[in-house]
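REQUEST ID: PR-0412
SUBMITTED BY: lab tech R.K.
PRIORITY: routine
TASK: structure prediction, single protein chain
INPUT:
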Amino acid sequence: MNSNKINEENIFSLPEIEIKRTLPIRLVNKSVSITFLIIISFVIAATIILFTIKTNLSISADGILSPSKIIHLRSPESGLINKILVKSGDTVKVNEVLVILDSLELKKSLFDIQSQISSDENAFNQKIKNAAFSKTQNELELKSAEEGLIKSKASFRDRISSFFPKANTDSLINNYNPGENITLDYAMADVHSAETAIQLSKLNIKKESLVNYDLTQLQIELKGLLQQERIIKEKLKHLIIKSPAAGIILTEGIEGLSNSYFQQGAKLMDIAETKNWDAVLFVKEDDINKVKINDKVKIKLTALQSEDDYRLFNASIISIGAEKINNNGNFQSYAGLYRVTVKVNFNNDKSDLSKLKNEYKVNGEIITDSGKIVDLLIRYFRKII
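STATUS: complete
OUTPUT:
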């Protein structure tokens, strides 16, 4: 019975084969073990990388360099341009002379005002001298009239004493009625004539105060004219136009504007400040929804890089275009794309920013997301699910 069971078990089992441990067999076994160790190491390394290493998701976009601030320089006065001392693309310093204007209107106005000032000053001085002369003359006439009154009263007393030796002379003069005595009438007429002369002299002296009003009016007019003269002289100083900031001349063909006439307030040229720069990137429609304000950007600017040192500059997004660029704007060569403006940070760079030019080509890497690789994978799969 037992032998039968043993035979049945042997039917369903393979015979044991004794393998001889040769050198090739041992090499194969070791290779398999090493392979398993390598795979396990890779798995462990990948797991560590997924859970510890941080990385960025970014969008690549080409663009151009653009100054953060553009100064629009306008003509302070109407007139001809005498000299243009710069040309398009020049780098200028603060207070560097750019344009010299020649204003015939201002010079004519200044000449007319100075002529009027000279005329009014002459009139003012003449009135002062006339007033001094008139004052002296009136004082002398008053004195003469007073002496004449004394003389006429003495004559009246002399004549009246012949007729009325004991009469009160002053009472007779005050109460005398003309026609009583022809001799006394002549004497009384001299008294009245002297009194009238005194009154006229006093009126002329009072009239001198009216001259002061004329002098005051002339002084007011002179003050106004002198103020206009100062204003025009100050304007003439402004005909020498200087650069308000360090920058780059953007206006094309500025060197050909000599002898051109400009109205007051008309734009002469545009100056781009070189202190701060932006970059305008052009993003595809498929990527624009991933971009947000304040996203970090890495800017690659070939104009500042050498072959051995290719640096990236930090930047951040400050504005995103709401519409596609059309075929009629300043960026018509980028029609169909979206405009994204970023502020470039050159603060920690030792490069000479004055060498930068408007519309230098740049390449930007817009960082749309960052974090550990595992977190980025989780967020990605959540979006697509």
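NOTES: The chain has four domains: 21-52, 57-68+276-384, 74-96+239-270, 105-237.
REVIEWED BY: pending
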